[in-house]
Fold this protein.
Amino acid sequence: MAGGKSIYDVLGDIADFDELLSAETLKESKKLRIKRHLEYMIKTGYKVPDFEKESDWLNVQAPLSIHGSLQGHILILDFFTYCCINCMHILPDLEEVEEKFPLDSGVVILGVHSAKFLNEKSTANIRSAVLRYGINHPVVNDSDATLWNKLAVSCWPTLLFVGPKGDILYSIAGEGHKNRMIEFLEVAIEFFENDIKPCTIPMSLEIDKRHRSELSFPGKICMWEKKRLLIISDTGNHRILVTDLNGTVQAVIGNGKRGLKDGSWSEAQFSSPQGVAGIEESIYVADTDNHCLREINWEKRMVSTIAGTGHQGTDTEGGKLGTCQELSSPWDVVDGGPNSSVLYVAMSGTHQIWIYFLSDSQSVMKRSYPKTSCIRFAGSGKEENRNNSYPEKASFAQPSGLVISASETYNSLYVADSESSTVRKVSLPDGKVTGVVGGEKDPSNLFSYGDTAGKGTIAKLQHPLGVALLTPEGPLLIADSYNHKIKTVDLSTSHCETLTGTGRVGNSVSQTSLLEAEFNEPGGLDVDKNSQLVYVADTNNHVIKVLDIKQQRVYQLPIVFSDDAVDSPFVIERPNDYIELPAVPCSVSSKSIDLCIPVTLSVGEHINPEAPQSWKLSALDNDGRALLECLNPMDLKGKPQFSSGPDASVPRASLTLPLPPSLQPGAVTIVVALQVFVCAGEVCLPPRTFHFAQQIDFAPEA
């Protein structure tokens, strides 16, 4: 209470000001109206309560205080929860505000994470989200929604503006208000000119502490049946990887920089791509943060934008062609089936299912659409869990995963509807939407979640992001992301149960039991129909895991960059920390030379014998120039052979190099980059690269 006013009175005053601010009949300028509002709010004197002292903080060295370290600044408190697509949508707006009003201007943006799901209360999980979404301002974990409740916040996202002395100034709910934010800040900075000071918050960004790995928050994975290849959305690295079934990378598509750029694989840019689908000679990508659909032409090695303007749209009907049609956060794509020429799209931002036409078609809802048309298939655009026989009256809540059963029995599109914690079914012939598992009967209740086996609405999920089918008849597999499990649903009975995962956050594999494996927010999965292996994008662990249901085991798929991969990060260079091995003599008349390289591991670690170890070599003269025309082992195939040396804890990697007949006497330095996969106990670690250099003294006679 301040001057007899409650927070509800203050929010009412702000609502009245909003109405006044948007009035077009008043002669007063908006600037003058904002100034008068600020004067009124200062007189009201409602002080924002401080953060709880025990709260966890991210991106800063020490906890912050509204009435301590943050005094003298204009604050924007961004109340968000990391599952919320609307909260993601305003992040680009906040980045623009940060660019226009940097810290030395006295404006500070603070993320206040007030969780919707139980899983989101964990600071470790929030840290992963901060890294995944590139958030570089301070974030506090309001784990029990204490500040949320004190300030009567009612929806995500909500932006609360606080003055340099802790007074509440203004509040904006929802997305799409960038101009209003900037307009308000420009007046507020001028109004508080004598009270504002440059910000000196000691930042400590989470991104600077992050462990680097081959993948970064992989979101989705697709089995490209025609090519017998895996397609991985390397979401955090803003690129697409294509690997063989052993994890050896065949192509890197995208230069790794966030952006929207068509062109060759090495030139193209994506922004947090999610869903991928391999159809004939093309890969289709839901380029989520670019609000686009992209096509990767496998033969031409080119990337092109096929739908979306590059800016978030609000259209809930569609009907335009290709890049004239605005989209909103497409999260997954799936092939329409063997006799179809469409892509189904989980349009997460507008809570709908859309269709993109790959060719002229008359096969959808008895209507004809030209090639590149993009239309709404199901969903009203309201965020609900509403089933209906009429597809335009049904409603979804952030659909994030798709799979199609084209069998005569089901002939349906299955949808992981994340915010309603359900899996839904859309009939392909008529668009009828029905529930499969999760949620409850009240379509407005998006908080009916949990981790319970059972049928229909008795079963409970928590923010599922992916679905797949073991066979066209089922069972249906679910990436139950916030429960850190993979679940199965019997399509004939709608009974849901856990297939793998303990429910605890972890990164363990298992050779004996599917239920002993651990995951961390798995986001996507797909099935190799031939082998019945299930590939899982274990998002927060930055790995791909493989479920061998027949053998009841879970293992990690090693990601190995081959010589043929574009822009491979595993490259040969002479690093400063390479290990110099003793020089060895050799005769130029020799046909080959054997290298034996010691690999030093930590106590308790061992080489993973099932992983495809890899190595690269270059030959350098004394000036460091490459002599690959003299010695070219880059074309060699195979992998190093490991054996125990005198010290059992130091494995030996043996490499045999053929020598060209034209080799001349002299000294040549062989530089070796050896990439090995190591396990500590039963836990598989990210691959490790060792660099060695060994001089070979070639003479007429050894």
Remarks:
- Residues 7-21 form the longest helix (15 residues).
